[in-house]
Amino acid sequence: MTEDLQFIYEKEFWYISVIVNTRFIDCNQKVSEIEKKLKGKLNNLSENDFPRLAWNKELVYTLIELGKNIALKCVWVPYIDSFPFTDENTGLVYNTVGYLQFEVEYYKDTPNKKELIRSELLQEIPNVILKILLEFCGLVANQYFYIDPVSPVFLFAISNHTKPVEVPWSKENVQKYKKEIGQWTEIYSGQWPDYSDELYEMRIQNNLSNRLSELHFIRRNSGFIYMVEENYGHFFDTYMKTYVLEPTGQIRALLFALTSINESLDILFTRQHYHGFKDIEVIEEKIQNLGFLRGMIQTKMSLIYNELDSNKRQHYTRVLTHLIEEFNLDRIIKRIRDKFDVIYDSMEVLYQNKNEEIQGRVERGFALLNVLFGLGVLADLAELIVVFVAGIGEGNLFKLAFHGSISIFITTILIITIVYFMRLRLKFRKEKKVVGETVDAVILDGKGNVLLIKRKYPPFRGQYALPGGFTEPKETPKEALVREIKEEVGFDINVERKIGVYDKKGRDPRGDVISTAFLCSIIGDPLKMVYGDELTAMEWVPLKTLKGVDLAFDHEDILRDAVDFDKYP
After folding, report:
1. What are the strands of the beta sheet with 464-465, ordered from one edge?
2. Helix (H) or strand (E) holding 157
3. CATH fold for domain 436-567
């Protein structure tokens, strides 16, 4: 039997992920409205707000008192700007991903009462808060302020004192007081006196602290930080907020953005399946936009991975690694990547079927014209026109009117038929022909190697190519190149010179695609690259091995124009 140990509550932080459209929402103003609304509600809580605890009047009364003695401050924290996301359920468009951070403290003016706060109570008021916020965002005036509707509020509980004594957190003491620690590390799981020892064994795993004077735990829906009072005073605001709390809010916002993309892909796939190619162009545009958003998230992830590689703070990198694992980011990124694969493959089939259908309609139309010629309809039309003209010459008004009406009728039918099928043929040719502008990069490492990627999607699936991609509207070729390389390999580049413009017919099986190529070098260590979801491989390939190698598109021509292969025998 171990002696009792009690963690004394100090304060807590709440994190709620949000996607907004800043063109319609002033986020700071909205935060002020939210603060006012929440404080008004929390000061007037009732038994009806806690139906899950209706059986325990004492706990309900304690929560009502907590609401009357809460100090609450909310701030808006943007994380990904220029994030053009469309909610496929509502059609609303957003442009920024971020989160709300609440700093919360009960009994701030009467700190001696903090000893009464039990860990199992902390989840209840955030549950009330989330319900209020979802109702608030459901108003038309707040429709562009989209709060994560599924995840619970992430709650960081903070303690800086224990009773009856301060304990050095060796492995032995963590094990000794595992039940008390475990009750604070999983506050969203509820607390029962007959939980097994195995459960508490699980809850005290992954203590992220490197100090005997601290405990740091981060779970999927809550976190717990204990720091002795001296450490808390010196390091909580300067270190802990920056390197533990803020990354948690950021990673959780990434998770919400990824989940939203995943749901949109599901909706688009269903729409594609049921509507066929009725709105295939619209679906393709939406999927391309989702791919762009995925690239932005991949860029954010690259920055995180760069931190893991370069940051010397062992505790910080351990926290980042734990957050990626705890929130299953790699798993959901892979799931989204697989969905893109499936959708791209199915769209290729749809496009092929559509082109075959249009071509068949064109061929049937011209076959009809041939039949008309074969039956002599056109010859009869010509004869009617001759009679019509002759009638004008003879002045026979009756013949003129009769034959003229028939001629006009047949001529109209014929013209409509010819125009219709000519338009079908033009439409078929237009849809078969894709016109676009791309950029390609010849990136050298200064050691005789060039960066090549292996394509994941058609055309030239599985073949090596230069990195690059399509330009966006109002984007210069250099701007497009910098963006594409950042998305594909996670690095910035120096654009050294233009190699040329490549527009040879047939260079791209998708149609007339013109490419502008540049010679570039990477900023940073070329060995520390993270390739994007649209590649299957990326390699530094010795130039001396590439003579005569057939790359995708006409990239061997671009490479030949950029490099003097005689220097690489």
Report:
1. 464-465, 449-455, 535-542
2. strand 154-163
3. Nucleoside Triphosphate Pyrophosphohydrolase (3.90.79)
